[in-house]
Design goal:
The protein has 587 residues and is mostly helical. The chain has three domains: 202 residues, Clc chloride channel; 209 residues, Orthogonal Bundle (Clc chloride channel), CATH 1.10.3080; 125 residues, CBS-domain (Roll). It has 25 helices and eight strands. About 4% of the residues have low confidence.
């Protein structure tokens, strides 16, 4: 380059220095821009997800041409079963992590996988949840959109090759964006992300979550309109003594919320114990029972938004529900939601929690009015009840207080809500209730309040303990050759693979000894004839307590570790000795 050309280029750089500074962004500016992208994407995802649910519901449940193919309204009994089956098949074959409530899965991805999730979760979770909720399954939209938003944040982070130390924040920012878009509550979404998802506070993380939440909320306002999530009943405390009633409401809420958590957890455990029914079939069976319940209590089906709106707007409710109806709806919603989600359906527990809280508060308010006619309206107690149940179920009292204030946009709710939530959380602590999210995560080795459980079997994963260089045998190998391998080596059991390298079974010296006792021709008999085919397997992310449980149930001392995406591909092996060694090392 000549002297004049160099001077010309230098002048160009000097005059355009601000442009070069703009495109050469610092790390902080880059992260803020990515947070904006995540917020925008989460807001759009929430909009699409809502319309997917509405579309499925309109096609299946609204009066119109689709109803003419069936006899009367009895076909609606089968709709949740169909939605459960289709959603179950999608989850089983494409993204198993899309199963469940949504929030625990998002927390697990953030805390145990460093925020790295599979982008396909966005699509699979959206479709599976839309099918479950739209056909009448008792579940909410908020949990799924939080997981969807988290997956969006993770996908953006992976796409832009964000540093691993920021991936968790990207996923949390996406989750906050999804929640903000659904509730039109950006402040509550930020607090939820910091209080429940991350459990840590840094200026960088807080800034990114705020950016994403605000952008998602603005996007939701543009696409869905500027409406409050719920109507606000006339509210007010007519006398300071009314705080005594809210004190009683807080006491009642704790055991009810705990009962909901226990019931859902029980149904999940029972579904896991049933081994002779394929996983995709379980949500179909759960959905069918929900359909039967819905025949007698149709208002327990779906998310429950209409029913909560009716409770908070009693002048617009033509039914004027009595106390017995409300009590039946509480019990019916708990059972229906537990069946829908416990059997493996895809949906959230936030809206069902608000439903149960609204009905509980309304029952309490109606009863209190019979004794004290001059107290505040029943809808006020319903509103506070919603926050109480959610605070225990999610183990997130601060989020519950801010969320109820933000979605109602009525500051008068703050005083009784703060008072009641404090009473309820103290009661829940005495009962050692950790909430629905906490119960799910505890099974996977995470504690909602403190991160990783100290006990090694509750914190270490299969990937951290497994032997990676596994000695395998081929299923077309003879038993005689296997006997020679056992005598010359140090192992007494081997995974068996076929010609394509796919895991097909397990064989140990026990099967070899039995073959010898049965006088088989071991020189010509193939391993394929004596191996165990119904072998248990685990995934790399499974905690050791789950590995040990499967060993115990299947009476084996070794278990294969397989890929999540391809359960026939062997990636490791765990023996009882590996577990004991890891326990002694970590304890």
């Amino acid at each position: 380059m000549g002297f004049r050309a160099k001077r010309r280029f230098a002048r160009l750089r000097q005059s355009g220095s601000s442009f070069f500074n703009l495109i050469t962004l610092s790390e902080e500016r880059t992260l803020m821009m990515l947070a904006v992208i995540v917020g925008l994407s989460s807001g759009i995802a929430a909009f699409v997800f809502k319309h997917m649910i509405d579309g499925v519901h309109h096609f299946c449940c609204q009066e119109g041409p689709s109803a003419n193919f069936f006899l009367g309204q009895w076909y609606r009994i089968f709709l949740p079963a169909i939605g459960g089956l289709l959603g179950g098949l999608l989850i089983y074959y494409f993204a198993k992590e899309a199963k469940g409530h949504g929030v625990p899965e998002a927390i697990y991805t953030i805390r145990r996988r460093g925020g790295r999730g599979r982008p396909r979760v966005v699509l699979i979770k959206s479709i599976a949840s839309a099918l479950t909720i739209g056909t009448g399954g008792s579940a909410g939209t908020e949990g799924p959109i939080i997981q969807i938003g988290s997956a969006v944040g993770s996908a953006v982070g992976q796409g832009f090759r964000v540093s691993p130390r920021y991936m968790k924040t990207m996923a949390a920012a996406g989750a906050a964006g999804g929640m903000a878009a659904v509730f039109n509550a950006p402040i509550a979404a930020v607090i939820f992300a910091m209080e429940v998802l991350l459990r840590e506070f840094t200026t960088q993380a807080f800034s990114m979550v705020v950016f994403s939440s605000v952008i998602a909320s603005i996007t939701s306002h543009i696409l869905l309109g500027d409406n409050t999530f719920l109507p606000t009943p006339s509210f007010g405390i007519h006398h300071p003594a009314e705080l005594g009633l809210y004190f009683l409401l807080g006491i009642i809420a704790a055991p009810l919320a705990s009962g909901f958590a226990v019931t859902l957890h029980w149904f999940e455990e029972q579904a896991e114990k049933i081994k002779n029914i394929p996983d995709p079939m379980k949500p179909m069976i759960g959905g069918f029972i929900v359909g039967i319940i819905g025949l007698f209590l149709p208002r327990v089906m779906g998310a429950g938004y209409f029913e909560v709106t009716a409770i908070l707007s009693p002048d617009k409710d033509p039914l004027q529900w009595g106390m017995l109806t409300l009590i039946l709806l509480i019990g019916g919603k708990i059972i229906a939601t537990s069946l829908t989600l416990g059997s493996g359906g895809s949906g959230g527990i936030l809206m069902p929690s608000l439903f149960i809280g609204a009905m509980m508060g309304s029952v309490f308010g109606k009863f209190a009015h019979t004794i004290f006619p001059n107290i505040g309206p029943t809808g006020a107690y319903a509103l506070v009840g919603m926050g109480l149940i959610f605070s225990v179920v999610a183990n997130a009292p601060v989020t519950a207080i801010v969320m109820m204030f933000e979605i109602t946009q009525d500051y008068r709710i703050i005083l009784p809500l703060m008072f009641s939530v404090t009473i309820t959380m103290l009661m829940a602590k005495q009962m050692k209730e950790i909430g629905i999210y906490g119960r799910v995560l505890l099974k996977r080795g995470l504690h909602l309040e403190g991160g990783t459980v100290h006990d090694p079997v509750m914190s270490l994963t299969a990937a951290e303990v497994m032997v990676k260089n596994v000695e395998i045998v081929w299923q077309n190998m003879t038993v005689g050759k296997l006997t020679q391998v056992i005598e010359e080596g140090h192992h007494t059991g081997f995974p068996v693979v076929n010609a394509q390298g796919e895991l097909t079974g397990m064989v140990t010296y026990i099967e070899v000894h039995k073959a010898s006792q049965d006088h088989l021709d071991i020189k010509n008999t193939l391993i394929d004839h004596i191996m165990r085919r119904d072998i248990p397997t685990v995934f790399p992310e499974d905690v050791l307590i789950e590995v040990a449980r499967k060993m115990q149930e299947n009476h084996t001392d070794r278990i294969a570790v397989v890929e999540v995406e391809n359960p026939k591909r062997l990636i490791g092996l765990i023996t009882r000795a590996n577990i004991m060694s890891a326990y002694q090392k970590e304890a």
